[in-house]
Specification:
The chain is of the alpha+beta class and 471 residues long. It is built from 21 helices and ten strands. A four-stranded mixed beta sheet has the order 2-1-4-5, with no helix packed on it.
Length: 471
C-alpha cells in the first residue's frame, strides 16, 4: 500500500485512491472522463494533430488504451492495483494524470519482476509487470507511435505488427526456401530485452519522433527500475518484457538490423528477436553469420550468443517459431518440430497428472483450451499421423485419470459394471495391483472408456480440431 500512497502524493496531491470496481464509467456520459462531449482537439482526425504527446493524452486515445488494458486483464504491479480497480481510480484522478503527463512530470512506478521458467533446465525468463496505470499509458503511447513507425519498418519484420503474424513469417520462410535459399543462419540474441542499449534506442526514437516530451516519457519508463524483494533496482539497460511498449521499442531498435540486411541483399525473416537469414550455400551462410554478428555487436551494442547461433540446412537443426521443415519433390512443407511436440506433451502430463487434485470438468476445460490453441498455431504443419498418435497417447492419459479418481476398489467395481463389464471381471480388475499407466492401456478401459465414450463425455481430440482449422 505504500507504493499506492506514493503515487497518490506524486500525481494527485493527496487525493485518495478509489479501490472498488465501479460501473463501466466509459459508457456513462455523466462520469466518464472522456465520454463527455468531445473537445475540439479530439474531434479532428489523427493526421491533423501535430504534437504526439497531445495525441497520446487525447480522450479517445486514452479510452482505447483503457479498454485494451481491461480486455487483456493481467496481474497488478508493485502498487497492487488490479485491472478491476482502474476505472474507479480514473474517475477521481484522470484529469490530474493528464496534467502530469502534459507537464512532463509523470513518473512511472518500478515494474514487478516475475521469473518464468525456460525450456532449458534451471534457466528463467525475466518479465516485468508494470502497474496498471503505467500499462494504460504505455498502450496509449503505442497507439500513437505505431502509425508513425509502421511505414518505416521492413517487409521482413513480422512480430508485434498489425496485420502480420507468425504464420505470415513462416510462409515467407517457405517462399525463400522454395527459391533455393535452404541454408539458414538462426541468430540468437543473448538476453535481448535485458541488454538493449537505452542510449542507442533513445537516439533512434529522437530521429523519428519530433516531440521531445514523448521521447523523455519513454526514457522514464525505461529507467523506472524493477522491484525485487521490496528493493528497487535501477535499470540502466534493457527494456522489460511484459509491458505494451516493449515490443514496439524492440522493433524500433531491430529495424536497424533489418535495414542492414536489406542493404546487403539478404533474404531474411524476423519475428521480434527471432532472426532467420537464408542463403543458397553453407559458405555464404557462414560469411553472413560472421559479418552480421560484427554489425550487431558494434553498431547496435547487442550480444550474439555464438553457441546458440547455428548455420544449418532448413530441414536439419533449424527450429523457427516452433516449426520444422521438410521437402517433397521441389516444394518445402511445414512440420511440427520435435521440441514443440515434447513441450505440448509436458503440458498434457500436467493437466492429466494423477495427483494434482483437479476435477474432471477443470481438466476437460484446460485440455480443450490447450488443444484448440496448439492446433490453431500449428495448423500450417502436415501432421495427421502425428495427431493420431497424440490422440491415442492423450486418451490413455485420460483413462488413467479416471482409474485414479475411482480410487477405491468398490468404486472401481461399480464403475466398470456400469460401463458393461461383467461383475466377475470387474471384481478382478478392481483388485488389480498393476500400475495406473499399465491399466490405462489395458483392454478393460479401452472397451469401457472407448473413444466414442470419451468424446460423449466432452474430451476433445487434436485430430478433430485439425480437420476444422484446415477446412
Amino acid at each position: 500500500m505504500g507504493m499506492v500512497k506514493d503515487r497518490q502524493l506524486q500525481l494527485f496531491e493527496g487525493q485518495p485512491q478509489r479501490v472498488g470496481a465501479e460501473p463501466r464509467w466509459y459508457a456513462e456520459a455523466s462520469t466518464c472522463p472522456w465520454n463527455t462531449e468531445a473537445d475540439e482537439f479530439d474531434a479532428r482526425p489523427a493526421s491533423d494533430r501535430k504534437d504526439p504527446l497531445e495525441q497520446i493524452c487525447g480522450r479517445e486515445n486514452m479510452r482505447e488504451a483503457y479498454l485494451k488494458v481491461v480486455r487483456n486483464k493481467g496481474a497488478g504491479g508493485v502498487d497492487k492495483m488490479t485491472v478491476g480497480e482502474l476505472e474507479g481510480w480514473l474517475k477521481k484522478n484522470y484529469e490530474a494524470l493528464i496534467s502530469r503527463l502534459l507537464a512532463g512530470k509523470y513518473k512511472p512506478l518500478p515494474v514487478r519482476r516475475v521469473e518464468i521458467p525456460k525450456e532449458e533446465k534451471g534457466k528463467v525468463r525475466q518479465l516485468g509487470i508494470p502497474a496498471v496505470v503505467d500499462r494504460m499509458i504505455q498502450q496509449a503511447i503505442v497507439q500513437v507511435l505505431t502509425p508513425i513507425y509502421e511505414p518505416l519498418f521492413s517487409e521482413g519484420s513480422f512480430g508485434f505488427r498489425p496485420g502480420r503474424s507468425a504464420h505470415d513469417a513462416l510462409r515467407r520462410v517457405k517462399e525463400y526456401a522454395d527459391e533455393g535459399n535452404v541454408w539458414c543462419v538462426s541468430l540468437d540474441l543473448e538476453r535481448f530485452f535485458d541488454t538493449v542499449n537505452q542510449s542507442k534506442l533513445i537516439q533512434l526514437l529522437g530521429e523519428t519522433i519530433e516531440d521531445g516530451r514523448v521521447v523523455s516519457l519513454i526514457h522514464r519508463f525505461l529507467m523506472a527500475g524493477v522491484m525485487i524483494d521490496g528493493v528497487v533496482i535501477p535499470t540502466e539497460e534493457g527494456t522489460p518484457q511484459g509491458g505494451p511498449l516493449s515490443p514496439l521499442l524492440a522493433n524500433v531498435l531491430l529495424n536497424e538490423l533489418d535495414r542492414e540486411l536489406e542493404g546487403r541483399g539478404h533474404a531474411f525473416v524476423r519475428y521480434a528477436d527471432d532472426v532467420l537469414i537464408m542463403k543458397a550455400t553453407r559458405k555464404a551462410a557462414e560469411r553472413t553469420r560472421d559479418s552480421i554478428t560484427e554489425f550487431i555487436e558494434k553498431k547496435l551494442f547487442l550480444k550474439v550468443n555464438r553457441d546458440k547461433t547455428i548455420v544449418a540446412r532448413i530441414n536439419q537443426d533449424v527450429k523457427y517459431l516452433g516449426y520444422g521443415f521438410y521437402k517433397t519433390k521441389d516444394e518445402w512443407h511445414f512440420r511440427v518440430h520435435p521440441k514443440s511436440i515434447a513441450k505440448i506433451k509436458k503440458k498434457i502430463r500436467l493437466i492429466t497428472a494423477r495427483s494434482n487434485g483437479w476435477s474432471l470438468d477443470w481438466r476437460r476445460y484446460k485440455l480443450k483450451t490447450l488443444v484448440n490453441g496448439w492446433v490453431n498455431y500449428f495448423k500450417l504443419a502436415d501432421m495427421k499421423t502425428l495427431l493420431k498418435e497424440m490422440d491415442e497417447w492423450c486418451r490413455r492419459r485420460i483413462r488413467m485419470v479416471y482409474w485414479k479418481q475411482w480410487k477405491k476398489t468398490r468404486t472401481k467395481l461399480h464403475a466398470l459394471v456400469k460401463l458393461g463389464i461383467s461383475k466377475n471381471q470387474a471384481w478382478q480388475w478392481a483388485n488389480s495391483r498393476k500400475a495406473y499407466w499399465r491399466i490405462a492401456g489395458s483392454w478393460v478401459l479401452s472397451r469401457t472408456l472407448t473413444n466414442t465414450k470419451l468424446s460423449e463425455l466432452g474430451w476433445v481430440t487434436f485430430s478433430e480440431r485439425y480437420v476444422l482449422v484446415r477446412c
